[in-house]
User: Fold these one by one.
Assistant:
Number 1:
Amino acid sequence: MARPVAVVVAAFLAGLLASEIAAEIAQNSADFYNLGRRRLPQQSLCLELIEPSGYSCSEHKIQTKDGYLLGLQRVSSRSGDLRTQLGPPVLLQHGLFMAGDAWFLNSPEESMGFVLADQGFDVWVGNVRGTRWSHGHVSLSEDDKNFWDWSWQELAEYDLAKMIHHIYSITNSKVFIVGHSQGTIMSLAALTQPDVAEMVEAAALFCPISYLEHITAKFVLRMVNMHLDQMILAMGIHELNFRSDWGVNLLDSICDGHVDCNDLLTSITGKNCCFNNSRVDFYLNYEPHPTSTKNLHHLFQMIRKGTFSKYDYGILKNLKLYGQLKPPSFDLGLIPKSLPLLMAYGGNDDLADVEDFHHTLKELQSTPELVYLENYGHIDFIVSINAKEDLHDRVIGFFRSWGKSSSS
């Protein structure tokens, strides 16, 4: 197989749960050839992407209770001032292989982060551990395998919980949440914790995926059936970085004789209606971000078992850590009935399957406001050129209808 196709695979696997770097593969394969050699952002997210568009932005560093140092950015409108920003706080939580830059990759008129800031919201941008806009660990090096010993479970219980608490303490207001893909897994799991839920005013969740049993993404299912996650762990690889040489070579071997990788966009995310192909080169300056192999393994466990549970360590370690043979489930019924939810899902999304989505709805106490976009695939919810009219305006109206009680 030609080398460029292997690099395309790397880029689109990095979009496994909604990376915004997708494009028409056959027409753009040359753009991906040097993915691993592309310029990585060297400055802060504020300086790299937000302030050049004319928005006020400040950098914050917070520490989780297990020692990870996370980057948060605070953004106000082009006509605003961070010191006098009066709107309610909104936390934007990205998905897998992404970071906070995901919310700012299109124009100010199309990007969720910019649109919310222009509407007067106090925008906070989350970046989970391991991504380039976060800041490592108080004692562990990123070369240490223990640095990568986490999955989305820790991202929910530690990272997201800390972000919400920090914003709540700074603003003295309950926090609105916007989550996409893995950001919805994190949000739903975190909101089962009463101390977190009481600091949240409402949540808008795009492509909710608390259950993954019925995904139809062919390429992802092939990797699950090959037990790729377990093979990578067995190789002693704890950091998943698809800009690295080994990542490209690994995915080259997957495609070679095993999977048709010529239509990777559709085989991973479903058909996306509204993706701007002309911006692929720009997106690849920022995406993909690293994650942990353990995180991928946890997601694949969910696909295989049809559960929304904590990480499965096997019987003996489960007994030691959880006091039971199987990992405990996250009980969605613990999310307060009084907590307003908006859930947006797409008819062409092969990752956030409609059947799994309805499984989630049945377990909630509340009845969320639903936004169904028939033509949307998984990444349209982040980088659609029509997102403001299709989605953002609905979210803004939803937040404003619940925002009157946000001061506490």
Note: The domain at 45-403 is CATH 3.40.50.1820 (Rossmann fold).
Number 2:
Amino acid sequence: MATATTNSSPSAQRHVGFSRRTQAPRQLDDDSPPVNKYRLLSEIMARAPYAVLERETYSDLLCDQCGSGELPEELLLCDKCDKGFHMKCVRPIVVRVPIGSWLCPNCQGGKRVRTFSQKKIIDFFGIRRSSDDANDKRSSQDAKKRRKRSRPLVLHKKKRRLLPFVPTKDPAQRLKQMGSLASALTALNLEFSDHLTYLPGMAPRSANQASLENGGMQTLSKEDMETLEKCIAMSKRGEFPPFMVVYDSREGYTVEADDLIKDMTIIAEYTGDVDYLDKREQDDCDSIMTLLLGAESSQSLVICADKRGNIARFISGINNHTQEGRKKQNCKCVRYNVNGECRVFLVATRDISKGERLYYDYNGHEYEYPTHHFV
């Protein structure tokens, strides 16, 4: 049988010969310390992939946090360390039983914070260049003129109007705010999206009709529509609301005000992929938002922020079963009819001071979201 070197190509033979000729001769030095050819076992185990090992029985499984074996239907088993944890004892808590493998916080390790340069932040959020600013300013001026001309002669009772957010004036601080959001989205493998997304295989845009709403929905007035358009134009220029995304070991990713937020200010639109509720009822996603409540269940739509989303994805929910939890609420979720389509917005319900964490009630309408274990 011919050897491998006989059948090898001339280029391969030249490469092998070159490697041998350029190899430096090893020198023996009695004073030099011996070279450690082997890695420590602890280092190997830290980098090695984990294997799922099944016990013979889990009847004696206890929660590693509270030491109790009660409520076995809420006990989660870590696929790496094989320890048990109650869903309510884990921080951040687990709202739904995960589908697939699950790792406890200790096995997940610390959250890696990724830093972004100014160019990467601009590319990440798809911010427009200065050439587009003139068109946005002209459209804003035209909207003000229309508002002055359309002012009625008869005075009516003053309604509470939505207010546009006021971005931070310091460009460097705005980059820090956007960088904190980009880091949180990247850590969860999410894409940034500031609008609703309609994908093949999910609900089409034609299914999003506000006329099918059966649970009650507000209609966005012309004045509020102008405010919304102003907020959208500012976001496209990179002038986002003054918020910082901060990771908390008990609550996960949270949102804190980086400046004063006045009452009735538009905080953000809840964005993500639009899908039918019937297809997502058994989903373990913890960021599903009601978009449309139809008279028939087949017409109901939800927003799923498990692939795409914005800062609304990280605003915390209150424990609406306690008085202390309800006191935390400083914004609300409102569904609006915008040009015949359903949209969801988060609006401040009072003045929010700098450094204050944002909270709203996840059970604003249906009261089906489990919040009794929220911090």
Note: The mean pLDDT is 79.
Number 3:
Amino acid sequence: MGCKAAAAMGLKAGGAGKLRLPSVVAAVARSRMMKLWVLRATTTVLLWTCLVQLTAVGETWGPRVLMGWPSCRTARLAMTEPVAEKAVLPPRRIYRNNGYLMVSCNGGLNQMRAAICDMVAIARYLNVTLIVPELDKTSFWNDPSEFQDIFDVEHFITSLRGEVRILRELPPRMKQRVEVGMFHSMPPISWSDISYYHNQILPLIQKHKVLHLNRTDARLANNGLPLDIQKLRCRVNYGSLKFTPQIEELGRRVIRILRKNGPFLVLHLRYEMDMLAFSGCTEGCTREEADELTRMRYAYPWWKEKVIDSYVKRKDGFCPLTPEEIALVLRALEVDRSMQIYIAAGEIYGGKRRMASLTSAYPNVVRKETLLEPSDLRFFQNHSSQMAALDYLVSLESDIFVPTYDGNMAKVVEGHRRFMGFKKTILLDRKIIVDLVDRYKSGSLPWDEFSKLIRSVHANRMGSASRRTVIPDKPKEEDYFYANPQECLRDPDLLRAS
């Protein structure tokens, strides 16, 4: 009974089966816990107060106290590990945001490249936030590449932060508006000056908050724009639109391979199936090939001109030169037979048969596919814009650049090479060339005379300084801004002398 009574003293009524400490012991334990809690709380408050005070001391003591004095170990690390300098970014431009501009580019790589430059300039002028442009995925090439697959998107955004705010995507609230259709979409009018965007486009942005421009090619005028707008177009093109590190590195590798074997000429040979079908040019093609190209042209509804007289178009100089014609021209221009000829183009229509004249005259004809291993290009296959980016880089660095047709790449590369110091670019006069070629092939013009005339015609067509042609009310016929960005060239005295 005594044991049971003693045990019962340690039980608390209502706590069946739960052992409790005697009241005195419990009180002591609670007192100790309270003291410990107070000590911890006091210590935490003191440490936090010290930290705040140290931070408030400012620049004199803060870095030393908070970061610590250098120890022997940190001194050794400082001697062996270089400290990467943080990139200096331009200060953000502070302005009242008038809304958001979304753009969907159309066309090939260089058509989109020029359009992106225009859209940045327009966004800057209108004080709107630009969303990283969407690239064309529905054109003939069906390239699924996104902006960040071709261009260094982080560099694009940060390098322009002093001019315009650029976001990768709309803020959540604005994205919700777009998802429910609360935005406006339209194609702007081609070749418009900046007043059109101020008077017509800006009110739409302010009204709808988000404006989507669904076509962007050739939407800004070549001439008659403020100097700061023209210079910003150049800054974007030659500074902010860098290709991705992977594309840049592969381009440098191709250039190194070419340089090991001496000087090289880049031939932008626009004799691909899509170009021939679009232009309706069939010089040198078989009847079956001509029919195939015609069927292809009719298959694409946006290639509006259907019935084309290839003979007349060629005589007027509106067809890309054939491989046979360009072989004669290069020989007449006295390009050394041992010169490396890099073909910047897609698959040549007609293959080896059509290339035979050129490879016979110039045996060192190469392409990226012959200079690189298949594994190097594995990730670029079926991505025509990324392949074109490689050709663009090689074209810029070539000793001579020769485009056989005045498409977007030819024009943009021409302008970029002018910007780089008027690097030699042979601008072929196709109308005169086809006439001379036909006379030579018919036997009415001897080779010596043919060669002399070709050199004479092109003596002043080597990419040197010249004034951009202005044709009021006919912007499509005047010189293209990106082919000759004279406002941005580094030696204005050359322009004054031209």
Note: Residues 245-495 form one domain.
Number 4:
Amino acid sequence: MIFVKLMQKNIFVFCYRLMEEPAAYGKLGLANLLELREECLREFHFFDAYRTIKQRENEASLAVLPDLLMELDSLTEDMRLLTLIEGVLAANIFDWGSRACVDLYHKGTIIEIYRMSRKKMQRPWRASERKHNIRRVDNFDAFKERMLGSGDRKPQPHKRALLFVDNSGADIVLGMLPLARELLRRGTEVVLVANSLPALNDVTAMELPDIVAEAAKHCDILRGAAEAGGLLVDAMSNIQDGYKEDTPSVPLMVVENGCGSPCIDLRQVSSELAAAAKDADLVILEGMGRSLHTNYNAKFKCDALKLAMVKNQRLAAKLVNGNIYDCVCRYEPAS
């Protein structure tokens, strides 16, 4: 992009002119400003300012993952799918790009905040009090019917799902990985799509294989899929756990999206992601940056599920006429 190239030549001149003349480089949306922020950090050698925080939150979340998987496996199919979606929405509260969410870290540990967030999940998905004129965005029932069917009709599982993941810590470990595990259980190939470069506390494609490897120590489903997808070179046959199931033949893979921002422009992605998307029949966009700030009204030729907790009051009022911490579950069948 032109404004990025200009900034790299003379970042001080660029930023000064932008402050003096906001329209000097054309119309800049939120995605542009977030990308600019990350480029500025990298220009001054802050390549991953949240690295230590991400590692600490990953470790804390991985420690409680076995209990969560055990809880999920004890549920009926219907309840498990609902709990998984609730878990993704609840875990999306961990966002260092939101001032309101950062303030929560002063009031409890990552696990305490996650449990609090899960406890408050109730449909229609809004964390705040109900309003008569609320524009609820809760299409879970339509998604459940596509996944589980109704009556005696059992739908074919999706062939390949692209999961655009968001934050490190509970968001990926306790939210999106269990959802990926459920899709794998059903015979769907899963591609975890993550940033190529660090941005805030977003998980990167480089970090994901290690996270998956640690999670796979507690789950045969993830382990077999990770091996099939090339994420694990050696089988961990010496690891003992309580999830003894047949190893799925479908792979779990990781690709980078070619992006270094909390938002994503699907017109500009890595060649690796473009190739992986050819056979995809399900896209799951998680987090405000990928599913609300960008792509909220994007139409896909395959099934699409957009999941996010709204962590900005202005966006909550504009999007759903609601409040901060309201949730969005928008399912759109293939168009």
Note: The first helix runs from residue 2 to 9.
